[in-house]
Specification:
Among the domains are: 2-46, OB fold (Dihydrolipoamide Acetyltransferase, E2P) (Beta Barrel), CATH 2.40.50; 81-161, Immunoglobulins (Immunoglobulin-like, Sandwich); 172-273, Rossmann fold (3-Layer(aba) Sandwich), CATH 3.40.50.10190. It contains ten helices and 18 strands. Strands 7, 8, 10, 11 and 12 form a five-stranded antiparallel sheet that branches. The protein has a four-stranded antiparallel sheet with strand order 3-2-1-4, with no helix packed on it. Strands 14-13-15-16 form a four-stranded parallel sheet. It has 392 residues and is α+β, with helices and mostly antiparallel strands. Helix 2 runs parallel beside helix 4 (232-240). One of its GO terms (cellular component) is exomer complex.
Length: 392
């Protein structure tokens, strides 16, 4: 088909062509002859290329078939979950390597009893997990949920029953450094209780048994927080017929902390724990009041005033208790006397002072009167009679 067009305007990049019915067509200037200008007439031949059209359609169909075979025929598979091992308080779950086909992985999540238990890290590399802190003799339900760019896929739900305290089949032991004879004895004890022995530390290893803490296996057990116990722990489980605590069976543990069970006999109570003696600290005695301390620390009453040589001998031989009572009676009597008799009381007190002060100048100013002799033990009865004659 031949078409004649008139060049209306020629620009650097686009030329405007006019049809016979005065329609405008923008045409690339690079496709036009180089010597044209405004008003020139150009002929353009237009035809359909069937060969090129067929080859292009075949190429597009091949591309679609390749995309379908790569991304349309295979889809991600649901995870296959199973229980690897179960103990009294833990469960080890494992699954086959996940198949996401050509889809993009989003996440792999574990559910316990319908609730999210956690997301599996590195799901393309990790194919097992361990759950601890479960209840004894309890049934749990687990399933995996795989999320991809091609959709969400869930595994079948499995039920796992934790073991009873008397079920020792879930114990998995990895032996470490110990004497050969002890290892043979350990092997027999493990077989008798129904437990398992594995040579390497795995995710389902429940206890690491050894007598010396060294070696790569021991380091891996410590790194994975696996209890490291002595062979006596197996003996204790066999003796009691039940799983016993590991606190007293660690390598450096005190043997007195080990549990002594009832020997697995039915109808008896739980095992008793033997602990080391405890030292109790007695609290300090509270301090007594200050007044009471002063009374306790006070000095004894002063000795009686000095007397003649004969009186001192009698005082030394006999206790001064009667004289003390007499002085107390004098004090009570003096408190009841009128003020006019104060001079007489002062004179009585002066008589009790030592004899070397009787001749002082202060005594000369006071009225003199005859002073009675100092009282003795024999005169106590006379003194009492004198105090009774005082008028109150």
């Amino acid at each position: 088909m031949l078409v004649s067009l008139t060049v209306g305007k020629v620009d650097a990049g686009v030329a405007v062509l006019l049809t016979e019915d005065k329609r405008l067509i923008e045409f690339p200037s690079i496709l036009l002859p180089p010597d044209i200008s405004s008003g020139s007439i150009v002929d353009i031949t237009v035809s359909r290329n069937h060969d090129k059209e067929s080859s292009s359609a075949a190429a597009f169909h091949a591309l679609q078939s390749n995309i379908y075979r790569t991304f349309g025929q295979r889809t991600p598979s649901a995870p296959i979950l199973r229980c690897r091992n179960a103990t009294q308080t833990s469960v080890v779950l494992e699954w086959d390597p996940i198949d996401i086909a050509t889809a993009e992985l989003r996440s792999l999540t574990l559910y316990r009893n319908g609730s999210k238990a956690g997301t599996i890290p590195k799901p393309t590399e990790v194919h097992s997990t361990k759950l601890s802190g479960l209840a004894v003799d309890t049934e749990y339900q687990f399933h995996l949920v795989l999320r991809t760019s091609a959709g969400t896929y869930s595994s079948e739900k499995i039920k796992v029953q934790t073991h009873k305290m008397t079920d020792l089949s879930g114990i998995t032991i990895t032996p470490g450094h110990m004497p050969a004879t002890l290892r043979e004895s350990l092997q027999k004890s493990v077989e008798r209780i129904g437990a398992k022995i594995v040579d390497t530390v795995r995710i389902d290893t429940t206890h690491f048994v050894c007598t010396e803490g060294r070696g790569p296996a021991w380091e891996k057990a410590v790194e994975n927080n696996i209890p490291v116990v002595v062979p006596d722990w197996i003996k204790g489980c066999e003796r009691d017929g039940r799983i016993v605590g590991v606190r007293g069976y660690y390598l450096n543990a005190d043997p007195r902390l080990r549990q002594i069970g009832p020997g697995g006999a039915p109808g008896q109570g739980p095992p008793q724990q033997v602990t080391s003696p405890r030292t109790e600290v007695t609290p300090p005695t509270p301090e007594r009041p200050t007044r009471q301390r002063e009374e306790d620390n006070s000095a004894p009453p002063p000795p009686p005033p000095p007397k003649d040589h004969e009186d001192e001998k009698s005082d030394t031989s006999t206790p001064p208790e009667p004289k003390t009572q007499t002085e107390e009676q004098k004090v009570r009597t003096e408190d009841l006397k009128p003020t006019a008799g104060d001079s007489e009381d002062e004179s009585d007190d002066e008589d009790e002072q030592p004899s070397n002060e009787k001749g002082s100048s202060s005594d000369a100013d006071l009225p003199s009167r005859e002073k009675p002799p100092p009282p003795t033990v024999e005169e106590d009865e006379d003194d009492k009679g004198k105090f009774e004659e005082v008028a109150f």
